[in-house]
Amino acid sequence: MTAAQPLNAHFGIDGQLVFREDASGLVIAEIGNAQATASLCLQGAHLMTWQPRGQAVPVIWLSRDAKLAAGKSIRGGVPVCWPWFGAHASEATFPGHGYARTVPWQVIESGTESDGATRLTLRLVESEKTRAQWPHSCKLELTVIVGEMLRMELSTENTGDSDFVISEALHAYFRIGDIGAVRVSGLAGCDYWDKVGGSTLKKQGGTIQFAGETDRVYINTDAECVIEDVKLKRRIRIAKSGSISTVVWTPWTVKADKMGDLGQPDGWREMVCVESANAFENAVKVAAGAKHTLIVEYRAEPL
User: Fold this and answer.
1) Which domain does 163 fall in, by range?
2) Starting at the edge strand that comes first in sequence, how are the strands of the sheet with 105-112 ordered?
3) Can you name the residues that pair with 119 across neighbouring β-strands?
């Protein structure tokens, strides 16, 4: 019996949701309904693709050089960064952006929404290894609703007796026509930490356009962001709640070449990251017995 068989028996939905085992041994949830298609790897609860039926190309970008392997993150999609964003504050050996994106998650619920969208909920599986990095009693769940709109809900419940602090992000990679021909609006006037060549605090003047490596953490903003893409003739709307940081990232040529898995030679030009986060000074204290939920809704529309 493969790992996918009991999942199909308990959570599969005829004509909408099927689980399969990849050649790597990882299990993939394949979603297809009247509104959209998507795929999600159970390791990391990692949404890999999403394409509404009305879109000629995917909205969520997956590198053509992406590799699936146990314990490794996948290049592209929407990685879950948790319970810290960036480097760990004190342990250099701990993985960047936390461990949630590289460990097993279990499916706990699936269903069909009233509008025909497909719902899938997963819970992070704790282990000795995860507890060594995060010695707090908690429950982390991700609900993904796949339809003409993509909705993601990342919920952290503190089941212990003491408060803890998390930083987090839904690290979304978006498929675009060309990085030199898109702009991102919604962040004008916001302060941001510019992480290219150091870390300095700056203020955004207008729309964001790209002419080189960009790595910015915008703080104290819950604004909707819009990617305007003249080449693909569409807007991608990113609306969020429970998040007051937004990260905007593109590696550009030199860093992309060093990374090596962005779809050589120029795959990086067809993606941009606009991440809904709580990072740096926007880290979240979750009180004992309380729950914090980060919610993002993604939509694509004609430009």
Assistant:
1) 4-302
2) 105-112, 118-124, 138-146, 150-158, 291-302, 234-241, 225-229, 182-185, 208-209
3) 111, 145
* Residue the block writes with tokens 């039926």: 53
- Annotated catalytic residue within 275, 292, 297, 301: 275
Residue 74 — pLDDT band, cuts 50, 70, 90?
very high
Average pLDDT over residues 246-250: 98
136 annotated active-site: no
Q: How many CA atoms lie within 13 A of 123 on its CB side?
A: 9
Does the annotation count 275 as an active-site position? yes
Q: Among the residues of the chain, which ranges form H helices?
A: 4-11, 128-133, 252-259
Residue whose structure tokens are 């795929």 = 39
Number of domains in the chain: 1
* Average pLDDT over every residue of 86-108: 94
Closest C-alpha among 102, 170, 169, 172 to residue 133: 102
* Token reading at 290: 């309380």
CATH of the domain at 247: 2.70.98.10
With 0-12 / 13-18 / 19 or more C-beta atoms within 10 angstroms meaning exposed / middle / buried, residue 23 is exposed
> Six-digit token pair at 263?
């779809």
> How buried is residue 15: exposed, middle or buried, by Cβ count under 10 Å (0-12/13-18/19+)?
exposed
Average pLDDT over residues 6-12: 97
Helix (H) or strand (E) holding 28: strand 27-32
Active-site residue among 171, 228, 281, 301? 171
